[in-house]
Design brief:
This protein has 139 residues and is mainly α.
Length: 139
C-alpha cells in the first residue's frame, strides 16, 4: 500500500501527540512537586481532592487524589495488551461493515446514534478547481 506523505505526516503527529499525553499521565503522580498556584488550580478543578475540607490542598492530598484517579493501574501507564478482532487479518471486511453502506444509510445510522447533533456534516461541497496529484513510478 502506498501512503502519501501528508497521511504519513498526520499519522506521525497523531502518534507523537498520543505518546506525549500518555507519558504525561504516567509521569504526573511520580513528579508531583507542584507550586502553590498549581495546587490552587488543581483544587478549583477537583474540590474533592481536599480531603480534610480546609480549603487548602496540600501536596500529600494532591498526590493521593492523583493516585486514586489512576484507577488501579499502579503507574503502569496505558494497557499494552488488548483484544483485536480476527476480522482485521482477513482480505475483506464483513458484508455489513459500515464502509460498504450507502451515504444515506450512514446518515441514518449517525442520526439514530447521535440524535442531539442538529448540524452534522455529512459531505463537503466539491470544489470547482482542485489540485490533482498523481503518483508516478520511481524506476
Amino acid at each position: 500500500m502506498i501512503m502519501n506523505s501528508s497521511l504519513r505526516k498526520h499519522r506521525c503527529i497523531k502518534i507523537a501527540s498520543l505518546s506525549a499525553f500518555f507519558l504525561l499521565m504516567v509521569m504526573t503522580p511520580m513528579a508531583f512537586s507542584q507550586s502553590a498556584p498549581q495546587l490552587r488550580q488543581l483544587l478549583r478543578r477537583f474540590p474533592a481532592a481536599d480531603v480534610n475540607g480546609d480549603g487548602t490542598l496540600t501536596v500529600k492530598e494532591a498526590r493521593a487524589f492523583m493516585a486514586s484517579r489512576q484507577g488501579g493501574r499502579k503507574g503502569q501507564g496505558p494497557p499494552t495488551e488488548f483484544y483485536v478482532n480476527p476480522g482485521w487479518s482477513k482480505a475483506r471486511f464483513p458484508d455489513d461493515a459500515i464502509c460498504y453502506r450507502t451515504p444515506e444509510e450512514i446518515q441514518r445510522i449517525y442520526r439514530e446514534t447521535f440524535p442531539k447533533d442538529t448540524k452534522p456534516v455529512f459531505q463537503f461541497p466539491q470544489p470547482e478547481q482542485a489540485l490533482r496529484i498523481g503518483i508516478s513510478s520511481l524506476d
